[in-house]
Amino acid sequence: MANRKKESAKFFTGFASAQIIFHWGIGLFNANLPLDFGFIALTEGLNTFSIVFWPIILVFSMYYGWIKKIKKK
Prior knowledge:
The protein has two helices and two strands. By secondary structure, the chain is mainly alpha-helical. A two-stranded antiparallel ribbon has the order 1-2.
């Protein structure tokens, strides 16, 4: 069960990396915001939040997926 949790954390590391590339790219290349995707509108405030939020998630998921050791009972 613990291995499944670590593998899920590794998956979310990749997902967070993709989100970082997307949001930093939008921020760096001055995309015309807001972008309307139909189900959500990406505004400048949401993009700024995502630029800060996703790297934090990346660090936590990397720590849990690769660095933290599993305690054996």
